[in-house]
């Protein structure tokens, strides 16, 4: 970081100059050409006080935190949702061997066949197995949790993007004022 000095002009303004500009000519906004003194003479000028510089681009700001947290929650929600989907409970009726069903069906009387055919028209009622029903309830809660994590992640990402745009607008307005 180089030291900067204030070079006075006849109009009352002060021009900021650096040591590396020694011996050159500066132009004041009033149009006056000012010769910049040598390095040795420049140290006699008033030094420019260090201003509080705006945060650099590498500062970890709130929008960055929101984007990171949102992305993490979104990935977690998608990962958990996929895992829960692939490990969902299987109804005991879905694991019956088709060959065993054919074997049982060949031994039925016509009246028993008619009775089972009427039951099949109604569809399978998987709610009769309480363990399966309990496992499906837990599965729905797990899927809901994964979905909520993903939705919160999306909301945080949206908030982080919005904060970033607002911050960019503020920075633009500050630069326009200068």
Protein model, in words:
A three-stranded antiparallel beta sheet has the order 2-1-5, with no helix packed on it. The protein has a two-stranded antiparallel sheet with strand order 3-4. The protein has helices spanning 39-42, 62-86, 98-106, 110-122, 130-177; strands at 4-8, 14-18, 25-27, 33-35, 46-47. The chain starts with a strand and ends with a helix. The chain is rod-shaped, with a radius of gyration of 38 Å. It contains five helices and five strands. α2 runs antiparallel to α5 (130-177). β3 and β4 (33-35) form a beta hairpin. It has two domains: 4-47, no CATH class; 62-90 and 99-173, no CATH class. It has 178 residues and is mainly alpha-helical.
In short, what is this structure?
This protein is mainly α. The chain has helices at 39-42, 62-86, 98-106, 110-122, 130-177; strands at residues 4-8, 14-18, 25-27, 33-35, 46-47.
Show the helix and strand layout.
Elements: E1 4-8, E2 14-18, E3 25-27, E4 33-35, H1 39-42, E5 46-47, H2 62-86, H3 98-106, H4 110-122, H5 130-177
Helix pairs in contact: 2-5
Mean pLDDT, nearest integer?
83
Q: Uncertain runs with pLDDT below 50, 5 residues or more?
A: none
Which descriptor suits the 3D outline?
A: rod-shaped
> What is the number of beta strands?
5
Approximate strand percentage: 5-15%
Describe the sheet with the most strands.
Answer: 3 strands, antiparallel
Helix-strand sequence: EEEEHEHHHH
Radius of gyration: 38 Å
Structural class: mainly alpha
Task: Note the main attributes of this structure.
mainly alpha; three-stranded antiparallel β-sheet; rod-shaped
């Amino acid at each position: 970081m180089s030291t900067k000095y204030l070079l006075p002009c006849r109009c009352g303004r002060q021009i900021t100059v650096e040591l590396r500009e020694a011996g050159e000519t500066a132009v004041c906004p009033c149009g006056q050409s000012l010769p910049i003194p040598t390095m040795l003479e420049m140290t006699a000028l008033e030094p420019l006080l260090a201003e509080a510089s705006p945060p650099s681009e590498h500062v970890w700001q709130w929008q960055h935190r929101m984007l990171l947290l949102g992305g993490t929650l979104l990935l977690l929600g998608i990962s958990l949702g996929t895992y829960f989907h692939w490990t969902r409970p299987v109804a005991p009726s879905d694991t019956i061997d088709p060959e065993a069903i054919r074997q049982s069906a060949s031994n039925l009387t016509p009246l028993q066949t008619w009775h089972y055919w009427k039951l099949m028209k109604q569809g399978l009622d998987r709610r009769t197995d309480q363990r399966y029903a309990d496992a499906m309830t837990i599965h729905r809660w797990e899927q809901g949790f994964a979905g909520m994590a993903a939705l919160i992640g999306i909301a945080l990402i949206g908030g982080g993007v919005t904060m970033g745009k607002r911050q960019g607008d503020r920075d633009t307005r500050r630069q326009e004022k200068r």
